[in-house]
Design brief:
The complex is a heterodimer of chains A (338) and B (248). With 338 residues, chain A is α+β, with helices and mostly antiparallel strands. Chain A contains 4 helices and 22 strands. Chain B folds into 2 domains: 90 residues, Gyrase A, domain 2; 148 residues, Cyclophilin-like (Cyclophilin, Beta Barrel). Chain B contains 6 helices and 14 strands.
């Protein structure tokens, strides 16, 4: 049976996202989709459904939601403080949100993008084969107070599962392969690029994020008049002032700025999730190694369901902890227990 | 064209990121390289090899994204080389189902304030510039950057003028801008280095329409000069007065 979820309050930049819309590159529309695609796989595993179903992506700030029907939900991505009718609800977990119940989600404690999934997925209108909002392309709109999101028929059952997420919310090192235009940069510049500790700039969004550093900008050899070429998410474009800019899911489809390399798709969630100011480093690896890493990650994501475990209530989140008898059954250690 | 075709550069296959390959037919824009890229893309799309997720083009290249679980780089490269060897792609004809679009545009005035600057760069008077730009029949060489946004060429040689180093902060939707022997018709408002010489009322991308994209690769376009008052009257028409004629 399908249901609904009403948005009572929405942080800025809250949108519906799925895996995006491949197939429209040649019409100038990039694939788009969730900034952190791993989070979609995690939510799908927690709810026992396909990763192609649409979720709500929350950019740094959550909101308040009310169930119009009994819903199974899951919370993934950047950890945010969440509660259901005032009772704390674990992140990276699935829960039952009964009809009429209110779900409140606060600001991200680390990382950038949090996700709210429902059993059956959100059933917003399909444009060019996907439900993802692509604000840069003018497809869909940010969610706002009063929006009622229809949810699809929920083929799964059960809630109260948890999943330990891959930690990708504090910055770190991302792996990069040489791409089309890497050879435009002198070896010394590539080495300096690898040796630099960058900070994720504050102006980042779903199109891309600037990488700031204290050193000089990065320069390709000779003239920069390269013919405009295809851009893919993960490309690290070096703009006129030498600042590397990592392109994300809602990037443009072609561009004339030289690109120093491409971040592996399996490392893009770490990059997209790094909050402003987080430290990031880049490390080139051979293409063969990257291919193996991607294949392994695809397999790991497909098997996430088996990594889910029954949620045990976290004592720290139990307001009535002292009313529980916690020490019955304790033994002195001297009894003959056999 | 004949002498340009005489010594085409050899096509070049490179990787794009981890799961993409690019077949480039030149390192700079030329008519044969553009035709080759369009034809090669069409051939790839028609073959729809297992594991190929998406094909696309830029001005001079065809792009393939593939699923690493179903294809590997060596296998795909061998297939691409096999397809390249099947014919002279530089001699390819243009894609089928082409149309000629006539799109009304205001040249100059406060709606397109950089006409004087662009005309001066091309060594023309404003009247000569308008005559030249509205007489040119240009072709959609690629669509990219933003949804439905065409790069149109090739303009007469006088228009081989550079892009501005200082970006225009915001060029509006429907703007017609010129540089490097090309016109770009903007589908979204954006900062740009191209010079704003004309303004249309055309909407290139309508996500809710049955045919969301107005232009296709290979279509030809001519811009006929109108007055600001006439443009105002076209604002309610989603096509902005654009009319198509079948060329195929």
């Amino acid at each position: 049976m399908s249901g609904s979820l009403t948005i009572l309050r929405a942080g800025p930049g809250m949108t519906v996202q799925d895996l995006g819309r491949p197939g429209w590159l040649e019409y100038g529309v990039s694939r788009g989709g969730a900034a952190d695609r791993l989070a979609l796989a995690e939510g799908a595993a927690l709810l026992g459904q396909g990763a192609e179903l649409a979720a709500v992506e929350m950019a740094g700030l959550g909101g308040e939601f009310q169930a119009g029907s009994d819903l199974r939900i899951a919370l993934t991505g950047a950890p945010m403080r969440a509660s259901i009718d005032g009772t704390a609800a674990a992140w990276n977990a699935s829960h039952l949100l009964p009809a009429g119940a209110r779900l409140t989600i606060g600001a991200a404690r680390s990382g950038s993008y949090g996700y709210l999934h429902v059993g059956g997925g959100f059933q917003t209108p399909v444009h060019l084969g996907a439900r993802s909002a692509h604000l840069a392309a003018g497809i869909g709109a940010a969610l706002a107070q009063g929006d009622v999101l229809e949810t699809g028929a929920d083929g799964g059952q059960g809630s109260g599962l948890g999943l330990t997420p891959e930690n990708r919310f504090e910055g770190g090192t991302v792996r990069v392969v040489a791409s089309l235009q890497t050879a435009l940069f002198p070896q010394a510049e590539l080495e300096r690029f690898e040796g630099t500790a960058f900070r994720r700039g504050a102006r980042g969004n779903r199109m891309g994020v600037p990488m700031e550093s204290d050193g000089e900008g990065f320069r390709p050899d000779g003239a920069r008049t390269v013919v405009s070429e295809v851009i893919v998410p993960g490309d690290i474009q070096v703009t006129g002032d030498g600042t590397p800019y990592v392109l994300l899911s809602e990037c443009q489809t072609t561009g004339g700025y030289p690109r120093i390399g491409t971040v592996l798709p399996c490392d893009l969630p770490l990059l997209a999730q790094a909050a402003a100011g987080a430290e990031l480093r880049f490390r080139f690896i051979p293409l063969e190694e990257a291919v193996e890493l991607e294949r392994a990650e695809a397999e790991r994501r497909a098997g996430l369901r088996s990594q889910c475990f029954p949620l045990i209530r976290d004592p720290r989140s139990m307001s009535n902890l002292l009313s529980y008898q916690l020490i019955s059954g304790a033994i002195a250690g001297e009894e003959d227990v056999l | 064209m004949a002498e340009e075709r005489a010594a085409p550069p050899a096509p070049d296959i490179r990787t794009v990121g981890v799961d993409g390959m690019l077949v480039s037919f030149g390192s700079r824009l030329s008519e044969p390289a553009n035709r080759a890229a369009l034809a090669f893309r069409a051939a790839l799309a028609a073959r729809s090899w297992d594991g190929v997720e998406e094909v696309s083009t830029s001005l001079v290249s065809a792009y393939v994204r593939f699923d690493l679980r179903h294809l590997d780089h060596a296998g795909l490269r061998a297939r691409l080389e096999g397809l390249l060897a099947q014919r002279d792609w530089y001699a390819a004809t243009l894609p089928g189902q082409r149309r000629l679009w006539r799109i009304p545009a205001v040249f100059g005035t406060e709606l397109a304030p950089q006409l004087p600057q662009a005309a001066a760069a091309a060594g023309m008077s404003e009247a000569e510039a308008v005559a030249s730009l509205s007489a040119a029949r240009v072709r959609v060489q690629t669509i990219g950057f933003a949804p439905g946004q065409p790069y149109l060429g090739e303009l007469p040689e006088a228009w081989d003028i550079p892009r501005q180093s200082q970006l225009t902060t915001r060029i509006p939707e429907g703007a017609l801008a010129v540089a490097i022997r090309q016109l770009v018709l903007f589908s979204v408002a954006t900062p740009t280095g191209w010079m704003h010489a004309g303004q249309t009322a055309v909407r290139l991308f309508r996500p809710d329409a049955e045919e969301p994209f107005l232009l296709r690769l290979g279509d030809e376009v001519q811009f006929n000069a109108i007055t600001p008052e006439e443009l105002q009257g076209l604002r309610r028409d989603p096509l902005g007065g654009a009319r198509a004629e079948d060329l195929s």
